[in-house]
Amino acid sequence: MDTVIAVKNLNVWYNHSVHAVKNVSIDIPRHTVVALIGPSGCGKSTFLRSLNRLLDTMENTNIEGEVIFNGKNIYHGDVDVTALRKQIGMVFQNPTPFPKSIYDNIAYGPLVNNEVGGYWGLSGIIKKFKKRKSASEVEASKDKLDGIVRESLKEAALWGEVKDRLFKSAYGLSGGQQQRLCIARAIAVKPEVILLDEPTSDLDPMATKKIEELVLKLKDSYTVIIVTHNIQQASRISDYVAFFHLGELVEYDTKKNIFTNPRHQLTAAYVKGEFG
Amino acid sequence: MLKKSETIGFFCIKASAYAGILLLLAALALIGLAGYRVISWQFLTGLWQHQDIAAGGIWPAILGSFYLGVGVTLCSFPLGIGAAIYLTEYGRQNFWRRSIEVAIRNLAGVPSVVYGLFGLGVFVYLMRLGTSLLAAVLTLSAMTLPWIITAAVEALQAVPPALRESSLALGATKWQTIKQVALPLVLPASLTGGIVGIARAMGETAPIIMVGATFYLTKLPTSPLDKFMALPYHSFILATQHSDPRAVEYASGTALVLIVLVFILSLGAIILRYYFRSKYKIQ
Ligand SMILES: Nc1ncnc2c1ncn2[C@@H]1O[C@H](COP(=O)(O)OP(=O)(O)O)[C@@H](O)[C@H]1O
Ligand SMILES: [Mg+2]
Predict the structure, then answer these.
(1) Whole-complex ipTM
(2) What are the structural domain ranges in chain B?
(3) Which residue pairs, CB below 8 angstroms and at least 24 apart, start in A175-179?
(4) Are residues A112 and B280, on separate chains, in Cβ contact within 8 Å?
(5) Does B91 contact chain A (CB < 8 Å)?
(6) Does the keyword Oxidoreductase feature in the UniProt annotation (chain A) (predicted)?
(7) For A170-202, how does the pLDDT look when each residue is reduced to its tens digit (9 = 90+)?
């Protein structure tokens, strides 16, 4: 089995007191969907945010243990954190479009990572002046950034819905569209892993369904780690399920085993919906 | 059905709201009535004639106040937003940071005379700028800074954390995140708060007398180191020091022009805010 992320004895404390993640070890296989489930407050988000080093942006957090991504510990001193975050994308519970157009939201990642000249390179400035293109112009464009925007939106199954308003505010989209825009934005920098933290908990069933279909498709190109409080959702879209409780990883197994033949009493009770 | 005590309470709140508006309208009407007759093309564009106040105009004072407003805006907005960014984004949350914030909040309430003395000591004498437009701009900027910093700090803190994290999660640096994601939201918001400070500064008399405003100039200022005339001081002198019987009327006319100038400035801020909001696609 090809492991993309291997977590070894990970511990996280908040404010030197709250032990939010307790000695968690887990191997994430490449090109799978891994669902993290467990009652709220059990450390799922904290664990997820330790995988792209978003945790260290907060003061008073202590992290111990190793997160081996493609064979290298991401907490090693010489790791370039911005480069790492480009490889491990993340989407949050509430949709978080930037105060920019739909096009600029997608273009943001490639631009800040200097893949297409950056914001202040000459080409970036020139683009600013001549970018109000029509859908068909972007469709046919040979420009690298246009191509990234187009392909990312298509991959996130959003192109058809937004192609005629690419240069309008992203805030004009519905909640479900905004969330797919955030996924498209994450895809635009070609990550290897995508972290999703309860991406559908604010969405209606139809929008949720679209995201779930998208996640299943994403598996071909990326590895997806998704936190969900919805057990049915985990059973619909995941290959592996990790059950957390009070900061500990109680059980981690294939979806089939977790749902039909769990080893732990607690897991059985949780997936039956006896507590949550 | 409202309870009786609620009805009374509600009436009081409503009454105080109307009282506030009425007071404002009354002040405007009073100044307007007292001063509208002196407003003429000559009054607005002519040079001041000290001997015959009806013969000249207040153009130098309008220009002086305009220079002050623009200078203070150019000086205090970048500085204030920069300071706010440093405080909220890069300063560590500790005793010093909290002390600085408390100090800034209190500075907004310091009497303007104190800023005048500060400007006189530091800009006029220590930095050898003399009594000049530049010294006045710097003095009033120091006075306006706390307002802008406070407004910008609040706006920065109101940026949703998940928005910043989304930017960081895409591989953006902290600075890119501030510039591209936070500032588009912060600029329009701090503009609204900051304009109050600038309007206040433009209406000040005491500090600018100390650092460079004069009542009577024979020529318009041509360099930042020249002395200048300003509307509030002009109005003050006319109302209290001039012997001409028509002086009070001219003082009111001057005050009216000042109010309109501040109003135009606020309108400019609203337009600018609208521009930012549409430029950055904030609905
Ligand atoms: N910024 C924080 N500061 C202090 N404690 C926190 C912080 N974030 C989360 N916690 C605590 O850490 C524990 C795990 O939280 P979290 O990872 O958000 O759980 P979950 O995502 O599973 O609901 C909870 O007890 C929560 O109260
Ligand atoms: Mg959570």
Answers:
(1) 0.91
(2) 1-38, 39-279
(3) A175/A95, A175/A202, A175/A203, A175/A204, A175/A207, A176/A203, A176/A204, A176/A206, A176/A207, A176/A208, A176/A210, A176/A211, A177/A207, A178/A95, A178/A97, A179/A91, A179/A95, A179/A203, A179/A207, A179/A211
(4) no
(5) no
(6) no
(7) 999 999 999 999 999 999 999 999 999 999 998
